[in-house]
């Protein structure tokens, strides 16, 4: 008989926790998983998946508009927010069911309750007072929207948690932030017909992205009628008869029906008993882990956003898998946190992998930059003026591609495959050798011949 009730106790049934629990159970571990909210975590319940469904909904607006250039006569389309939200909710419920079934099929026991760490091998369920001992504990509680920024009337702002359940489509929405969430929702609401304003404290949107990607999206959003207010913050929000009056740091006042704060996310470690159990946290409250996701308490591990390494679902899944392989599968596995393809599902979409131009210039003395900006074939008849941007960064010494960036339709799909090429160490010559698929936008990746001077 083991001295512990279970081999693994996972706190949090999101992407990282579920993967770790399933794989550990498949290796024969006795596993319990506690989840205080809904199985699936941020990504499935109130993140990537519902967001992408809303993104799809919003993009029909362009299609209806473009159709006229191809001979279609489209009667003025009507959109119903309630229908979309109900259908989205049904799909999320279906996915939650699948996640739950998969956990149970793997042999893990799901506990629908909050769990708190009490010591290196003990977890307590505050609702019942029940204690469970575990050989290993995995913290996979993810993140939550940051409380900041501070301004008078911030209680009137909603976060990305609530935005999925608005009663109706706001006529006017003001969004705080210039990151992933702010820009994805700006695109969603603009597509669905809201008047959108983005208020960002920085000089450009999307800090950390390639400079041209940032300015290109900014220009595209402005062209699409989204108001981009840079180097400004919110000073005050007050309820007025017809919505909210929002005063900015430049003294200007704006009205909106909804104020969405998308000013970052923070690790969800509050009240988890970690500090009391001796688990070291960093100054942002993230669990500090080593390359095997192990904390300073040898029996306690953490994966996903709660560790604030790379806050992306596929990374949490990798980390969960590597943890289970290492601890229960006798296969020591490290997770590589480099070369991460990623997409921002703004409209137009952004896809990136590798270094930005300024990062690449700092690392490579002989950097070659290849660039294509063009209107896609479809635009010839639709009349749409928006341009696609594609950029390849090549180390002139080794010919290796060190970065690829795109703003335009399906950039996320394209960058997934570029990620494969870059992971394999592709050179510009490899791209040049590859035959184009014609006519596509993607063929530009293999037909760019002259570096920008
Ligand atoms: P981000 O970190 O991407 O963006 C936060 C934004 O809020 C930044 O523009 C930041 O400005 C601004 N900000 C932060 N604090 C303040 C403040 N006090 N006052 C005013 N502005 C502030 O966070 P998100 O919330 O958009 O998303 C969280 C994470 O979730 C992302 O970083 C990403 O890892 C993940 N995610 C991934 C998605 C995807 O893969 N498609 C989609 C959604 C989320 P500044 O730049 O000046 O710091």
Automatic annotation (TrEMBL):
Residues annotated as binding NAD(+): 177-184, 264, 305
Entry EC number(s): 1.8.1.7
Cofactor: how and how many bound: Binds 1 FAD per subunit.
Record keywords, A-Z: Disulfide bond, FAD, Flavoprotein, NAD, NADP, Nucleotide-binding, Oxidoreductase, Redox-active center
InterPro entries recorded: FAD/NAD-bd_sf, FAD/NAD-binding_dom, FAD/NAD-linked_Rdtase_dimer_sf, GSHR, GSHR/TRXR-like, Pyr_nuc-diS_OxRdtase, Pyr_nucl-diS_OxRdtase_dimer, Pyr_OxRdtase_I_AS
Ranges for domain Pyridine nucleotide-disulphide oxidoreductase dimerisation: 340-448
Gene Ontology cellular component list: cytosol
Cysteine pairs bridged by disulfides in the record: 43-48
Assembly and oligomerization: Homodimer.
Designated name of the protein: Glutathione reductase
